[in-house]
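Exercise 7. Given the encoded structure of a 330-residue chain, write a plausible sequence.
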């Protein structure tokens, strides 16, 4: 197995089961393309039962417990065996929710939860791969998407880029180092200033960087808006995808806000929090960067939208995301 997670998996299975299990690759040609890109599938017999192991690609973001629950429901009737998600890392809050929901998982060398067979949830305090998987920081991702979608940043002094992105020159200096280390851009000196130079263009640059890009959504919240939603809140999620494609909209609209706007509006009484969707009239996504810097006056930008939904288990969503990407005028 070339996947680093898979390389640790077999030795961990030997440790917890006391035998050397045989991992057999599964034929999954009939599965949707996004699932085949995200996972490698194997069959294994452990503790007298056959399990389907879904090894998550190292470049993918760790999903939520709800996402894994939907994926398991999608995969079970097709693979005919209980699905075990094999993950490079798993935040404790997501792990706890998966245990509550009874979703099997393995973090090789660390933890395993196979309901009715094995529970190994001892904390080993391994250094998480998290961002160590190579994902860009929010400001670095914002910089790249701004270059791809709004205006070219090649040759501009770092100070000018910082002003466009509403961040400090020191932050842009860190972004410069981060993008250079990731080999997404090079740094050149123009007079007394440092500037970015991107070796690839348009779709080629997107393809080069995509494995390091993550969903901008950091948390979601059901709220009741006291006025008509509008700028700087932008349509996002399924609401934005339905506006850009042929997908039907959800019952409640979804809007994106920057990192600090939600708390400010809750304090001001512009909106109030709700415990569930039944009492809400809007779903809010809090983004890691300001959506208004990339989107228009009504809707979030297409590349961030794609990143926010690319691991959605709904095949209809995946089909419309393909249409979304095909429509981008690279």
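Solution.
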């Amino acid at each position: 197995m070339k996947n680093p997670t898979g390389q640790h998996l077999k030795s961990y299975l030997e440790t917890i089961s006391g035998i050397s299990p045989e991992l057999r690759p599964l034929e999954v040609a009939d599965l949707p393309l996004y699932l085949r890109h995200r996972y490698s599938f194997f069959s294994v017999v452990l503790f007298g039962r056959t399990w389907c192991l879904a090894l998550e690609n190292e470049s993918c973001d760790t999903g939520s417990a709800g996402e894994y629950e939907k994926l398991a429901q999608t995969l079970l009737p097709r693979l005919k065996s209980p699905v075990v998600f094999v993950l490079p890392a798993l935040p404790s809050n997501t792990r706890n929710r998966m245990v509550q929901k009874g979703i099997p998982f393995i973090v090789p060398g660390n933890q395993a939860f196979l309901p009715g067979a094995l529970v190994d949830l001892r904390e080993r305090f391994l250094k998480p791969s998290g961002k160590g998987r190579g994902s860009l920081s929010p400001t670095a991702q914002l910089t790249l998407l701004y270059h791809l979608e709004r205006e070219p940043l090649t040759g501009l002094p770092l100070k000018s880029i910082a002003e466009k992105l509403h961040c400090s020159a020191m932050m842009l200096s860190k972004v410069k180092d981060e993008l250079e280390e990731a080999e997404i851009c090079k740094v050149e000196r123009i007079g007394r200033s440092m500037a970015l130079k991107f070796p690839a263009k348009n779709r080629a640059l997107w393809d080069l960087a995509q494995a390091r890009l993550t969903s901008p959504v950091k948390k979601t919240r059901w709220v009741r808006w006291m006025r008509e939603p509008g700028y700087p809140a932008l349509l996002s999620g399924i609401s934005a995808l339905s506006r850009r494609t042929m997908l039907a909209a959800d019952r409640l609209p979804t809007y994106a806000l920057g990192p600090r706007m939600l708390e400010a509006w809750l304090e001001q009484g512009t909106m109030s929090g709700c415990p569930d969707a039944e009492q809400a009239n809007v779903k809010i996504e809090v983004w890691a960067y300001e959506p208004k810097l990339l989107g228009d006056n009504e809707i979030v930008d297409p590349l961030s939208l794609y990143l926010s939904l690319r691991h959605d288990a709904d095949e209809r969503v995946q089909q419309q995301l393909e249409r979304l990407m095909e429509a981008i005028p690279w």
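Remark. The chain has three domains: 4-120, 134-211, 217-326. Students should compare their own answers with the one above.
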